[in-house]
Amino acid sequence: xxxxxxxxxxxxxxxxxx
Length: 18
Fold this sequence. Notes:
This protein has one helix at residues 2-17. By secondary structure, it is mainly alpha-helical.
């Protein structure tokens, strides 16, 4: 579950960098 939550938050973060 922890990984899932971190992955979801990592998606928008990467998009912001892009």
